Structure formats: structure tokens, C-alpha cells
Amino acid sequence: MLSDAMVDAYLERIGARRPERADIHGLRHLQERHVLSVPFENIDYHVEGAELGLDREFLYDKIVTRRRGGGCYELNPSFGHLLEALGYRVEILSGQVFLGGAFGAPLCHLALRVDLDGEEWLVDVGFGKNSRFPLPIGTSEVQKDPHGDYRVVRPEEGGIQVELNGGIQYRLDERPVRIEDFLPTLWWYRTAPDSVFLHNLIVSHQKEDGRVTVNGRELTRTTAAGRETVELPDDAALLAAYEEHFGIVLDTVPKQPDVDPAIRIVMQID
Hints:
Elements: H1 4-14, H2 24-37, E1 40-41, H3 56-65, H4 72-85, E2 89-99, E3 102-103, E4 109-116, E5 119-123, E6 135-136, E7 143-145, E8 148-153, E9 160-164, E10 167-172, H5 183-191, E11 202-207, E12 210-215, E13 218-223, E14 226-231, H6 235-246, H7 261-266
Family: Belongs to the arylamine N-acetyltransferase family.
Protein name: Arylamine N-acetyltransferase
């Protein structure tokens, strides 16, 4: 369990106030602040010698102390630790991402389920195009969110399916799992030749009025006024963009990956 001092530091990291009670109002505030403060990123997959881990202390150090971001394996369990310390009941669910017209392998996505007085809520701050607010699991109605129109449905095949603007994002197994269950898949993401994280170097951050993404050396800003993409010409410009737009300060320049065009399309979350 995170200590009170660690909770305070985490709340400062995301610019959130401590909720008076563990209710849906506090959960909505915390998720919104996390989404708007902590970027989705996979830089450490492209820095030689960089560590990746799933334990509580490692994730806290990376996201809170070093003020970095991460993927679903990092952001969602870290956020879950904060929620548990604040009195929320949290379970980890595993999922299959919908890519290229089919579902991928199990345990390739990690999301949270929060139980509030018998009502279940889907909490996800680590998918890239996740909702800004928690989604109720008990209804299949369209949920209007600043990031789009979401639906949480239970298909005939079973599980919990999340849809955005009419398209499938992923499907979750309703049986809770342990964080340790994701260790083999984390190893696969770090080593497999067709790992989406090895073929993409991406940092993406949802803002109040849009999104900022650096994909490789392309910087894309998306707002209500439109979308603009510029090329970052060198390493200095790349590091400066990381610091300016995401608050990420690096001593080492990540290696640019060999891009597979088909896999790169999957990661277009800008």
C-alpha cells in the first residue's frame, strides 16, 4: 500500500485533490487528472539498458518520482495502487486488443475494474485512446466522453467489450488476474520481432483541447481547429519536444526503430 506521503506526491504529480470519500465523483476527478497529466509512452523500449518492471515501487518511481509515462502495464496498475490507497476496491482485468479486424492474444492489455457500492466501473488510463472518465460496465448505452462516444457491451462470446465511435477497441476477460500474470507478455513485447512496441517509438498526451503526439520524429498536434504534423530534424529537437510537450527529460536519445508500416498504423493514436 502506498504511504500517505506517497499518495500526496502522486496527487501532486497529476494535479489532483484528495477525495473526501471513495466515490464516483472522486474517481472521475482522479481519472481525468491522470489522463491529462501522464503521457502514454514506450521510450524505454528503445533505450539500451533501460529497465521495465511491474512492481509497485518501480512503477511509482517511474511515474511519480521521475515524472515519466508508460503503457497499459505501467499506467493502469500504478493508478490502481493510488486508488487502493484512497479506499477504492480495484481489480485487474486482462484483455485482447482488436487489431486488423481480429482480436490479438490474451493478456495484451491491462485495465481496471472498480466496484463502488455494487456498481462496476471500467477504469483505463493506459490505452492511448482511452476515455477521460470511468465507464459504467452495467449499461450498453453510448457514453458521451470528451474523447468520443464509448460503449461497454457484453458480446455473446463473453467478456466486456469496449467500443469507441462504433469501432471495437478491446475485449476484457471478466475474471480478475494478478499483475504477475503479465510478466511473460511483457517479455514478449520486449523481445518479439513483431512486437508493436519495438516497431514504434511513441509519446502521446491527451490535452484539454486535443492531443500532442511524437511518433518517431513526427510531432503532431490535434485540436478542434485541425491537425498539424512537423518533422523533428535531429536528436536535439526530439529531446526538446519530449521536455516541452510531455515534461520528459532524458539523458539518452532513444534509438529510432525500424518501422513496419502495417504495425505503425496500429499505433496511430494521434
